[in-house]
Amino acid sequence: MDITKRRKFKNRIFHVLTFLCTLFGVIILSVLLFSILSKGIKWLSLNFLTNFPSRFPKKAGIYPALLGSLWLIFLTAIISFPIGIGTALYLEEYAKESKFTDFIKLNIANLAGVPAIIYGMLGLTIFVRLLGFGRSIISGALTMSLLILPTIIISSQEALKSVPDSLKQASYALGTTKWQTITGVVLPYALPGILTGTILSISRALGEAAPLIVVGALAYVSFIPKTPFDQFTVLPIQIFNWASMPKKEFQNVAAAGIIVLLIILLGINSIAIILRNKYQIRIKD
Amino acid sequence: MENIIKIENLNFYYGNFLALKNINMDIYKNKITAFIGPSGCGKSTLLRTLNRMNDFIENIKVEGNIYFKGQNIYSKEVDPVELRRRIGMVFQKPNPFPKTIYENIVYGLRKNGVNKKEILDEVVERTLKAVALYDEVKDKIYKSALELSGGQQQRLCIARAIAMQPEVVLMDEPTSALDPISTLKIEELLLELKKDYTIIIVTHSMQQAARISDWTAFFLNGELIEYDTTENIFENPRDKRTEDYITGRFG
């Protein structure tokens, strides 16, 4: 009896402990959200979205940064999506097991852990200087693509691995080629997982500032970017810029910028969740 | 009797492991041939050499010849994709695609360039009738195949295989994941299908082999011990090991 009581007591302690761990994250997030919202919500307006940055907090807006961020994630997506999924398909479906493929896989995993600022240096050397793209959106997008490619590849690989072998065999047994099996069975099955991973990586790119500062995104922009070769700024840099201004009201402007960034991030993440739920296929075992 | 497949001096290796040892046998047209034997005896491996499904495994080696209607299927001119169109396969566990019943059946046809709706509709109806599934599912052929029961799914997989109009259908323990009633239905179906197709079935159930097959091959440790009409195998086995196996003394 005594042992049973002790076991139950231990069980309850760990129940409470794990709950407290969960609560920790929730509380931190709520405090953050509350402080941001209370500072910034009054500053949010249509003008804030369509104005250029200004010396006067009341007139300051995020229009160029917003457009810069949208350009950046759009280009990053169309660059990294095909390359990432292509790599994952090669590694999972085509490449034979060998030391070489193991080596590639290991390296991709390592690349995922390289600090973002290193990618910024790489982007500065290769895209800005060597290829001569200058301090443009395209340089930023290429750098961001390098940054998120390892994550996209790894999550796509996981999604491809989850495709049951029995389905692939069923497809091959009907006289289909490898490519037909990939388009007919493998990709439809893996796509929700691939999209989830990819979209989450892209939302990470949206929040990054460090590599873009190295690549040369501007801190103050008084024009809107029209082509991928224009100079630009992005939301996180603009927010950082405001937050470091001496005038106190700019803290509130920065908070308003953070709200905009958060809304876009949450929007993208909910697209990922919706896609996953909509196309998720459950296989009975 | 006309043979459709002829296996000659076949050796099969997984790496260094010799999984099939010098197999020689003929498979006869429009008959049901059963492969029996204890687990690991090589019967599934042999089945998968016939439509080259083993090609997907790395480090395998095939020696000897397998002729399908006179042509060596391991010669360089033979495209395994084309071969699998003509030699269909049904697997141990029902494996319908996560698509509608309709799309499951026409999958192979679509991938081979058949897209005319009238043809596809006709194939769906004909094959569902052939596997005695039509009455059960006719109102939901545009619903997901995953909603069907296990037995229905397996019959759908058979319909999917015969939609390609193969000449041979390979079955790898097709009823081992099913309940007795579903099993019975599939066995009845196979007796019906052998009019149009040659069927090779791997089974763990000796009763099943005895009930439905015309020819039975008994394998042990990668060797073909005895191959004869099902009647002879079960009533007058020539080899002591065959007798021991079918009487349940081992395996």
Automatic annotation (TrEMBL), chain B:
Localization, per the record, is: Cell inner membrane
Topology versus the membrane: Peripheral membrane protein
The organism named in the record is Caloramator fervidus
Query: Where is the ABC transporter domain positioned along the sequence?
Result: 5-246
Q: Which SMART domains match?
A: AAA
Q: Which GO terms describe its molecular function?
A: ATP binding; ATP hydrolysis activity; phosphate transmembrane transporter activity
Q: Which PROSITE patterns match?
A: ABC_TRANSPORTER_1 (PS00211), ABC_TRANSPORTER_2 (PS50893)
| GO BP annotation list | phosphate ion transmembrane transport
Name the Gene3D superfamilies for this protein: P-loop containing nucleotide triphosphate hydrolases (3.40.50.300)
SUPFAM superfamilies hit by this protein: P-loop containing nucleoside triphosphate hydrolases
Q: What is its main location?
A: membrane
- Give the record's GO CC terms: plasma membrane
> What is the protein named?
Phosphate ABC transporter ATP-binding protein, PhoT family (TC 3.A.1.7.1)
